[in-house]
Request: fold
Amino acid sequence: MSATDRLNLGITCFPTFGGSGLIATEIGLAMADRGHRVHFIARDLPVRLHGTSRQVLFHEVTESDYPALQHAGTYPLALASKMIEVASYERLDILHVHYAVPHATAAWMAREVLGDKAPRIVTTLHGTDTTLVGTDPSYLPITRFSILRSDAVTAPSEFLRRATWEGFGIPETFPIEVIPNFVDTERYAPARDRACLRELFPALGEDEPVLIHVSNFRPVKRVGDVVATFAEVHRRLPCRLIMIGDGPERSPAERRLRELGLEERVAFLGKQEHFVELLAAADVFLLPSEQESFGLAALEALSCGVPVVASDIGGIPELIDPGVTGYLAPVGDVGAMAEHVLALVSEPARWSAFSRRARERVLARFRLSPAIDRYEALYRRLVAGRAGR
Reply:
């Protein structure tokens, strides 16, 4: 790639295990693989960013320790200052921010300071930044303003695009491009090796089903419903459960399992970055959330050929084809979810058909390369036009 074709890209995201940070990091790494230079601007190193290189650089955002500024919420100001610094020295073409609050706001402040030399701003919405935090009366005006002042806005689902228009009173003529989340289908691939499961459960039966859940264990994930669904399935068919992640709902879930006497049949593994082997070996992925704008964890399961049983809510129906790649149930309907799980694990031929179709659907619609093509095309349109809204 020639120097004139190479883009200088800045990416800001939360450096956590959440879907927004993971997608942001994968976009940056993929763009670097294509020869572009990528600068991550964040409070800490994103979880999937291992080290740096000449193509991938990390710029840490640090807040002042001055006593008068403690507990003053100075992160957006510190972030804007770091964006200004990096954009000035590195001559950024694009600043791609993930999550409207506070990242899009910080990007707007940086652009106001930089003036004509400012990079184009791309804001990718991920869910709670618009459906929960952003629509809070305390944040709604500034969130709406920051979205409208972006040079381009994307969302991973049609549901989130519409929720943004409606939640902020934004006219539908304001363009929000739907670019679905994606998955590395080579990394997340079918592999039915149950040896890793026996390391967790030495007494695991040959045909004993294993359910799995991956999340940040916040209340919105309804982890209690995961436990209740597992308990109902186990009452009728002995099974196991793997819980990956951590958060405020972990302790109540562990307590409930002890009350049920099922703690030995469940493995809580905490936050894990590398769990593909376990995911691919499981039989059903559970996602009983009360809100999901997309469902990246479910997509990774489908890519591994693991059927998903999830809530019929938000962007999930755009990901899961009921009766084909998984099943959907009303939020909180533990009985229906248990029936769906039993329907899958009780008939090997049905499970195999669901597994095959899940993988085929991901390969057809959610591969990494086509998604990166769309982001790269968006960046180039903005750079060529140099005309913000």
